[in-house]
Structure formats: structure tokens, C-alpha cells
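Morning, I've got a small favour to ask if you have a moment. I've been staring at a protein lately and its backbone has me curious. You're getting the sequence in one-letter code plus the fold written as C-alpha cells. I've dropped the whole record in just underneath, so have a look:
=====
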Amino acid sequence: MKWYNLFIKYRFWLGVAALVGAVVVNILSGFWPAFVLYLAGAILIFTHFFVGPLRLIQEYLESGDFEGAEKVLASVWFPNLLYKPVRSVYYTLKGNLAMMKNDFDSAEIHMKKSLSLGSAVKEAEGANMLQLGMMAMQKGDMKTGESYIRQAIKAGIPDNDSAALAYLQMCQIMIQKREFRAAKDFFRKSKAQKPSQKQITDQIKQMEKYISRMPG
């Protein structure tokens, strides 16, 4: 599919070239011989702004080239012209990349923009809410953090590791609120996800030692 990625990458400039060619043909031969080029140019430029080049990001993310992914996002000159579901994905990606750079303020802004636009995939909303909840917890805002994490669980979280993290975070919140029965319930749900990420499994092991001594 490399040819298709190249097409997306240069779609705008192909559209400009088609319009320039259409003008030349129009001058030399009239409008109707140039019509196909006009139409092709208009479609290429329209889809560049309406759909965007976000498909190109997957390759960069899979290879860990976050700088390349940022360059693709930077090539979206007018995000507000993107089709609404695509715009939601655009802001989600902006938020994820900001989080990787520990720029939590920007990440929060982008995630909230994504949520305000909605998503065709409900689990994507859940993932965004979980991110916002974790950021709120890092800022010490437990009330907001709990609200977002509960909403994330309700919306659905797309992978077991993230779901386990959400339940584990809720377990810790319940412990702080001294609601030990609820904490144990969330802990069981976290373990039931059978996460594979070492950082999460280590947290579960540490929590298990504490849970066993907890009343309720």
C-alpha cells in the first residue's frame, strides 16, 4: 500500500497540478476538454482538507517514529475543515503525542476537544476519558479523576491493559475514600482483565498484598 500512502502524502499538490493543467488546457482548447482535470483537481484538494492525511500516521506510530507522526499532524493546516469523526481522531492523536512529551496541559485540551466532537467508536471515547481521568489524578483532583474513569469504564475501554489500569485506579480511589468493599470489587475486576503490561501486573501484585489485609 506504499503507493496509496504516497498518493495521500502528495494528494494536495497533485490537485494543484491538475488545476494548473486544467487552466492551460482551458486556454488552449476550451472548457470541456479541461473539465476532467478541473474535477480531478477539485476532488483531490477537497479530500485533502475533508479527510486529511491521518492514515499516514499509523506507519510512524508502529515504528515508534513520533517525530514523523507529529509532522503528519502538522500537515493538517485547517483542522476545523476535517470531517467530524476524523477531526475527533486528529485531536486524540494530538493528545496522545502531547502525553508522550509529558505536556499534560496540551494533552488535556486536545482530549477534551476530541470528546466534545464525539466518536463513531465508543471505546475511543472510553480511552480518552481514561486519559483525562489519569491526568486529573496526577494533578491531585480525585473527584474529577474518578468521574472520568467511571465514564471511561461505562463507555468501554478497548484493551485489557487499559481496562485493568482503570479498575486498579478505581480501587485506589475507593481505598482513599475508605470504601473497602468497593475497592476489593474493583481489584478483582482489574485482575480479571489479565493484563500483560509489566508495569500494571507489578502494581496488581503490590496491591494484592495490601488488599489481603484490608477490612471489608
Remarks:
- The chain has twelve helices and no strands.
- The CA atoms of residues 17 and 192 lie 56 Å apart.
